Structures are given as C-alpha cells and as structure tokens.
C-alpha cells in the first residue's frame, strides 16, 4: 500500500495579503479642514432641527399639558391613537388625504414626463428655452395667488363658466366650490399647472445625457420620432423615473395643506380636509397637542412603510431603488 501525500499550492502573496487601509494623517485633516468644519456645522444643524424635535413625539403617548411639559404630563400609552382610529372624522380625513395624494402623484408624475418628452422634440432651441422658462414660473407663485386665480377662473362670472355657456355646454353658471365631486379634480389641476414645469427639469437633464449615437442608430433603422421616444428615450429615462417614483410614493400622504385649506369651505369639507388640516384643527386650535402629534406620527410611519415596501418591490423586480 502506498500512501499519497498532497502538497498545498501556495497562494500569490498579493492575493493572500489584505489590502491595507490608508491611514489619515494630521496633514490630510488640515488640508480638508474647510470641508470638515462645514460637515460638523451641517451635522449639528441636522441634529438640532431634525432629530431633537423627535423627542416631541412623546406627547402622543401622554395627556400633554403645556404648563407641565413633557416630563410632567400624564402618560396614557396608546390612548390617543385609539381615539384617532375610533374617530369617524379622522378616518374620512385619511380617505381624503390618500385619494388626493394618489391622484396628485399619478397626474403630476405623468404630466412631468410627457411635458419633458414633448419639450425635447421642439426643434427651435430659442423656442424651447422660452417655453421651459415660462413653465417654471407657476412654481414660484404662492398658493394664495394660485387659489385666487382659481377662484376668479371658476367663479360664476369666471372664464370657465363663460366658455362653457358660450359653447352651450351648460345653461347656467356652476358653483364649482359648492359641489364635492369637483374638489379633487380642481386640486389635481392646480398641482399640475403649478408644478409640471418644475418637475420636468430633472427629466430634461436626464434626456440631455442620452448618447446621441443611440438616436442615430435608431434613425438608420428607420425609426421616426415616436419610435425614438419609445425605444430610446423612455428606456434611458427608466432609472430616473423609478428613483423619483419611489421618492414621491413616500409623500403620498403629503397631499397638501394650503390649497385644501384655502379652497375648502363648509359645503365641501367632507372631501377637502386632509391630515394636516386635522392636526391644525384638533392639535393646535383645540389645544389637544397629543392628538395632533399622534396623527403626525401616523402619517410619518405610513410614509416610511410605503417607501420600504415599494423599494423592496423594485429590488425584487431588478429595478433601480433607493437603498
């Protein structure tokens, strides 16, 4: 019987040794001192204004009284959350916020992409710049001005009623702000008019980074404008679209406050009130800070859950994701 012996094959030294980390010297720190100082300042700013206020969430679990403060108020556990979800008004407010948030997300998201695609097809560079600049302007208008324009346009003597009556669509003016079925479309239209141009900026920037040779190859294959958009532009925009979609999904409960508060009235309050208005009404006006804080925590938790869920779905399907 002969015994066989095996000899280990030595690994190359370069692969066997781990790559040493570069030590940061005092000279490196001095060289980057400006960046370090600004980093420290921004970190302190973030801690003070973003993380320390989270201590106020403790109010949601207390019967908070301003005179006793956070440390002296009675602890009531989940009582305020139970009150929220047993309140018919709050459940209706959740429905309104979700409905307007989803409508605004879909309409503004799609319109920004469509506007960027159409603007990219404008041959005249001067005309494109003029249209692009004009489309930005509504973003810088306050909601008070926007709602004032809407009131004038949709009033009984406004341009919308006048046009509809001149074309014999209606026989008498419509009070658009007295009917619940018109409120959500009005809010969606206002958001589209105000934000489409601004939201299209990042898509236009992404379109300019597309390799021109792809369009040339498509043209050689006989592709027209629509075919180029379908087979070149949209696939190239897909990563940008996915990232922005994931970011905007987390804001679905941020349906707005100003426009609903300014356009809402007693006749349409069943469809106009959002969570933010509910917090203002019950958390501040009525002095129940604990209830308002509980409603705010609910909105934040739902936003986080939505982002994590849709980010996981994007990861499962091999799409671009946030993390």
Describe this structure in words.
The protein is mostly helical and 323 residues long. The chain has one domain (79-316): Orthogonal Bundle (MetI-like fold). The chain has 17 helices and two strands. A two-stranded antiparallel sheet has the order 1-2. The longest helix has 33 residues, at 88-120.
Q: So what's the CATH class?
A: Mainly Alpha
Give the number of DSSP strands. Answer: 2
- Report the biggest beta sheet as strand number plus sense, adding barrel if it closes: 2 strands, antiparallel
The span between the termini is 60 Å
Mean pLDDT: 88
Order of helices and strands: HHHEHEHHHHHHHHHHHHH
Q: From the coordinates shown, what is the CATH architecture?
A: Orthogonal Bundle
Tally of distinct domains? 1
Say what oligomer this is: single chain
Strand content: under 5%
CATH fold title:
MetI-like fold
Count of discrete alpha- or pi-helical segments spanning 4 or more residues: 17
The name of the CATH superfamily reads: MetI-like
Summarize the structure.
By secondary structure, the protein is mostly helical. It has helices at 13-16, 26-31, 33-51, 69-72, 79-85, 88-120, 125-136, 143-154, 159-166, 180-199, 201-208, 212-220, 225-249, 258-263, 269-272, 275-285, 289-316; strands spanning 62-63, 74-75.
Features:
single chain, 323 residues, mainly alpha, MetI-like fold, two-stranded antiparallel ribbon, 2 strands
């Amino acid at each position: 019987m002969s015994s066989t012996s095996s000899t280990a094959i030595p690994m190359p030294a370069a692969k066997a040794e781990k790559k040493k980390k570069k030590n940061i010297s005092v000279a490196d720190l001095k060289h980057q001192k400006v960046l370090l100082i600004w980093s420290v300042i921004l970190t302190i700013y973030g801690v003070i204004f973003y993380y320390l206020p989270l201590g106020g969430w403790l109010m949601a679990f207390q019967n908070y009284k301003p005179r006793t403060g956070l440390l002296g108020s009675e602890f009531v556990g989940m009582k305020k959350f139970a009150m929220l979800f047993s309140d018919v008004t709050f459940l209706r407010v959740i429905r309104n916020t979700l409905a307007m948030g989803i409508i605004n997300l879909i309409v503004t998201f799609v319109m920004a992409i469509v506007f960027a695609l159409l603007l990219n097809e404008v041959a005249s560079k001067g005309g494109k710049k003029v249209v692009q600049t004009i489309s930005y302007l509504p973003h810088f208008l306050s909601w008070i001005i926007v709602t004032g324009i809407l009131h004038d346009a949709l009033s009984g003597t406004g341009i919308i009623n006048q046009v509809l009556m001149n074309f014999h669509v209606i026989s008498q003016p419509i009070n658009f702000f007295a009917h619940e079925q018109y409120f959500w479309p009005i809010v969606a239209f206002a958001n589209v008019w105000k934000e489409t141009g601004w939201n299209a900026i990042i898509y236009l920037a992404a379109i300019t980074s597309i390799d021109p040779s792809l369009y040339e190859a498509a043209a050689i294959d006989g592709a027209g404008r629509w075919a180029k958009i379908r087979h070149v532009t949209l696939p190239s925009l897909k990563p940008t679209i996915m990232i922005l979609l994931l970011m905007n999904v987390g804001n679905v409960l941020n349906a707005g406050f100003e426009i609903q508060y300014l356009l809402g009235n007693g006749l349409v309050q069943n469809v106009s009130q959002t969570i933010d208005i509910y917090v203002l009404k019950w958390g501040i006006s009525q002095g129940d800070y604990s209830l308002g804080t509980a409603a705010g925590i609910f909105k934040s938790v739902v936003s986080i859950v939505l982002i994590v869920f849709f980010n996981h779905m994007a990861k499962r399907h091999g799409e671009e994701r946030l993390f």
